[in-house]
From TrEMBL:
Superkingdom of the organism of origin: Eukaryota
SMART domains assigned: SWIB
Organism: Camelina sativa (False flax)
Protein name: Upstream activation factor subunit UAF30-like
Pfam families the UniProt entry points to: SWIB
InterPro entries: SWIB_domain, SWIB_MDM2_dom_sf, SWIB_MDM2_domain
Source lineage: Eukaryota, Viridiplantae, Streptophyta, Embryophyta, Tracheophyta
All residue ranges annotated as the DM2 domain in the record: 19-97
Length: 100
């Protein structure tokens, strides 16, 4: 069951959903992190989030901040600390732009 707001967004602009779930070839840095040669943007974000939770990388005092280890830094432009709101845009940089 999708929330009503998400249903409306998908019906208004189905290409937006397609950009999230289409499989793409990954660059080498992201391929090493994810362990696959092709993955969707959404799948990649889910893998990164799972890695963060598994390795306890969220700041204990501020859960909106991720303290990056060396492996995570390699895909997040070498940043030491990343806010959760920045995470999707940093991951999106690894995916090729769709022609309009």
């Amino acid at each position: 069951m999708l929330p009503q707001r998400l249903k409306k967004a998908i019906t208004d602009n189905p290409k937006k959903l397609g950009n999230l779930i289409d499989l793409v070839n990954l660059p080498s840095t992201l391929r090493e992190f994810v362990g696959q040669s092709q993955i969707s943007r959404l799948g990649c974000f889910m893998r990164v989030w799972s890695y963060i939770k598994t390795n306890n990388l969220q700041d204990p005092t501020n859960k909106n901040v991720v303290n990056c280890d060396e492996k995570l830094k390699s895909i997040l432009l070498g940043k030491q600390r990343v806010e959760l709101v920045e995470l999707p845009s940093l991951i999106k940089l690894h995916f090729p732009k769709e022609p309009k």
